[in-house]
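Subject: Sanity check before I submit

Could someone independently write out the structure tokens for this chain? I want to compare against mine line by line before I put it in a report. The sequence has 421 residues.
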Amino acid sequence: MGKDNTHQVDLEDEVVRGSIILNQGEMMWPPPAVEPSPVAAKPTAGAALVKAKEKEPFKDTMASSLTYTAGLGTLVVLGATAPDPAFTTMCTTFALAGICGYHTVWGVTPALHSPLMSVTNAISGITAVGGLLVMGGGYLPTNAVQTLAAAAAFVSFINIFGGFVITQRMLDMFKRPTDPKDTTISTVYQQRCSWEDTGTRQVRIWLIFTRWLTSPHLSAVWALSGACLLRLPPVGNTLGMIGVTGGITATVGLLNPPIEVLAQMGGAAVMGGAVGATIAKKVEITSLPQLVALFHSFVGAAACLTCIATYIHDFPHLATLDNAAVLKTAIMFGTYIGGVTVTGSLVAYGKLDGKLSSAALLLPGRHAINASLLAANIGCMGYFFNAPSLAAGVGMLSASPPVRVLWDTLLLLLLEERTCP
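---
Independent answer below. Compare away.
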């Protein structure tokens, strides 16, 4: 003990001194009291206070005014340039959905962010509606358009069923053995029935249920409400299922397809749902986040397939349509966003599952590569709007996603694993 190379008892060391009882026959116990170290003087209250940032009412009011002006101005421009009322309705629904999504994220506790990601991913499988709108033929598709539409519906149903099963498994991890059994649906039903007179109860409930099934907007609100109510997790997941089911059922009811096509739609839903639910039930609980990312890639694939099928289906009428530019813009951006979704989801899955390195990929000349791929994307878009034939347009739609996949993959590989959800 001590600071020398040889054995030495350092009595100046507080720890050593406190452990010595006898030293060369001399009683050393108890050790002397240790004086506490001097405490640094606390700064005065005036010095500790940081000068608060002075408010600037004019700048704050101006920023708020410009924000509202931009929002209202955008609505005016959309209303003035809208080719038909349906376009305005869709933009309004999109804006309301954005508001609901914003408040959904901020209204959920951090512990439930993974189930939130899963249930919103499952709701995004409503892309199945796009495939259902274009499906046709008989019990099986009879042409390329119908085949692409059936494939889009199939992969969307994989995401829907698998997403809700994953969400429920995630929420089950928060349950305690002593928690009562969830009776959300029966409780809501009983409360609704208590408002009705006994003689008219069944008739009114049936009318409400029928109206819900035949109203796609109300169904969308139910789906979004299911996400917003994740502060009551079982209610949110259940209402999400009800909303998506109502939206798909309303779409089928409005289409009123023949029995053969209806059977084809049901087959796509059953087979896709079976695949998604089976995978979601069998995967390990620790692999659920990366499975959500994998399932989300199906949403992007469905968007690409639906946009290509829609373009092929509507191409003979594009020359005479007043809203041809709007339709082409929607189709092109649909494939673009779908390609980004596929790429981002697959790369996130690979990093979360350990199949891809979590380190950032820094390629030499990466900025030039990214700029070239961006230019290629813009070139595909520009040529698509002026495509002289169906083959040229489909070629641009088919060529653009691979270019975006390569570009987005390079961009996403630059990110480290901590940036993945």
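---
OP: Matches mine. For the report I'm noting this point. The longest helix spans residues 144-172.
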